[in-house]
Write a structure and sequence with these properties.
The chain is an alpha/beta fold. The chain contains eight helices and four strands. The mean pLDDT is about 80.
């Protein structure tokens, strides 16, 4: 464990818990080792690290990591990617599907709820054959994303031309990166709309002033 995470930790104690003799339930040992580790680094709960799940024959992991580099440069939190290549029986967000599972019942020996895993993470589900993507933003991720923001980012992903083409995935990551790096940048279409409306109102104002002047002259001539 790096010294920036914890100066001192009981490695032998963790190993003893992990390899506890007489305890046949591997998950039980893993759960309690993880809890002890969290306590030693000063957190009551743990966090997922950034991870990539590849489903299908394509999707070189290193190429996916390369595409994620710009995002990691502006976002210090965790990113989880489910990258599907090949025809999928059903498309959808992996995170939203997983929320239908009662993890606390399934893993009842765990000492705390698991919901917190989702709060500081960006989840990306991408299907290379169709270019369809689903983005889930944890509630603790900054800046905040509107539904419109997420929809625009999702539509920025494109399908892959072949299993070695990652440009469609990278284009969506670029859109996500730009939104995080420039959260307050106004929508250019909204700005154009405001300018057009202002120009129309100005033109109407000028027309009304001219009409008022003509009417004033007509009244004064009488």
């Amino acid at each position: 464990m790096g010294s920036n995470i914890a100066q001192d930790f009981d490695k032998d104690g963790l190993i003893e818990t992990l390899c506890e003799e007489g305890e046949k339930d591997e998950f039980y040992r893993m759960a309690h080792t993880f809890d002890d580790l969290c306590d030693q680094v000063g957190h009551s709960t743990g966090r997922y690290v950034s991870k990539i799940n590849r489903i299908g024959e394509g999707g070189d992991e290193q190429e996916i990591k390369n595409a994620l580099i710009p995002l990691h440069e502006v976002f210090s939190g965790y990113v989880c990617v489910d990258y599907y290549s090949g025809v999928a029986d059903e498309e959808g967000s992996v995170l939203r599907k997983s929320r239908e599972i009662d993890y606390d019942e399934t893993f009842e020996v765990w000492e705390h709820e698991l919901e917190y895993y989702y709060d500081d993470t960006i989840y990306i589900t991408y299907y290379s054959d169709t270019g369809k993507a689903y983005i889930d933003i944890g509630k603790d991720v900054e800046p905040e994303f509107s539904g419109k923001d997420i929809s625009e980012i999702e539509t920025s992903f494109r399908m892959a031309e072949n299993e070695n083409d990652f440009s469609g995935f990278a284009s969506g990551i670029t859109a996500l990166t730009e939104k995080i790096a420039n959260p307050d940048e106004p929508d250019r279409f909204a700005v154009i709309g405001i300018v057009v409306i202002a120009a129309v109102l100005f033109a109407i104002g000028v027309m009304l002033i001219k009409r008022h002047k003509r009417q004033s002259r007509s009244v004064s001539s009488l």
